[in-house]
Design a protein that fits this description.
single chain, about 130 residues, mainly beta, globular
Length: about 130
């Protein structure tokens, strides 16, 4: 089982990027796929999560309204569209997969909820 995050890079303030998280070794069906980020000197934080079963989503307050998470089950890929990027969005972004459980919206921010993690992709927002 592998998760591959990609799509990071440098961008100016106000710009956009789309991150991708592609899974191999298992097919999406009943999973919660989360995006986390870790800024220099800070703890890793949950950004967003999506249910691959029904597409329901949740976001952290810091990105709500600017970021959109989506899933393409046929491609085993989850996307994170990031708009109006700000310098404080600079971080290494990770995707992770966990089993979809009842009430997952209450758990997705916890790293222990996830079974598999991908390597990160760096997003650098310059002012």
């Amino acid at each position: 089982v592998q998760l591959q995050a990609s799509g990071g890079g440098p961008v100016q303030t106000g710009g956009s990027l789309r991150l991708s998280c592609t899974a191999s070794g298992f097919g999406f069906g009943y999973d919660a796929i989360g995006w986390f980020r870790q800024a220099p000197g800070k703890q890793r934080e949950g950004v967003s999560c999506i249910s691959t079963r029904d597409g329901s989503t949740d976001y952290s307050a810091s990105v709500k309204g600017r970021f959109t998470i989506s899933v393409d089950n046929a491609k085993n890929t989850v996307y994170l569209q990031m708009n109006n990027l700000q310098p404080e969005d600079t971080a290494v972004y990770y995707c992770a997969s966990g089993g979809l459980v009842s009430g997952w919206i209450d758990y997705w921010r916890s790293e222990s909820f996830y079974d598999y993690w991908g390597e990160g992709t760096l997003v650098t927002v310059s002012s």
